[in-house]
Amino acid sequence: MIGHGVSHEPLGTALLNCTRHIYGRLPVQLAALDVIPDEDPAGATKAAGELMSRINDGSGVLVLTDVFGATPSRIAMGLAEPFRVIVVAGVNLPMLLKALGNRRCPLEDLAAMLIDSAKHGILSRSTERRPRRRPIGTIRCSGLKRSSSTSLACTRGHRPRSRSWPSGSRAKSG
Hints:
Layout: E1 2-8, H1 11-23, E2 30-35, H2 41-55, E3 61-65, H3 71-77, E4 85-89, H4 93-101, H5 107-120, E5 144-146, E6 152-154
Parallel strand pairs: 1-2, 1-3, 3-4
Antiparallel strand pairs: 5-6
């Protein structure tokens, strides 16, 4: 897998600089093309193709682009070839790092992995303090009974946090 980015200026170069900072050097076969405002799309497409042919070793190319439908994305989509060049839109630093960490995967599998992790990789943390959770192993309901040899059931509809019973409070099955 070869990494190639086509994005709005200066995102591609900034992502390369971040990978250089994280890894201590620029990973091999990784390149970026920053599309400047008002650049001729035909000239940018030609430059992207030349850059891709310089870094391609025959194992296929993963092209990451920023905004689907924008000029850099349309340039990248022009490079796509089934099983040889795959384009994924929505590039960010975690996606690029995941791609670099899984370079030996087949292109189709890598693209699917990146898309899946991107869907689940955007998180939010509220500034409100949530109430502390009870320590694992505590039972929060007194209506527990053993429904089988391996599972617990609550007569009040609650779910226990642990399968272990606190000492001295073993519920009797009925």
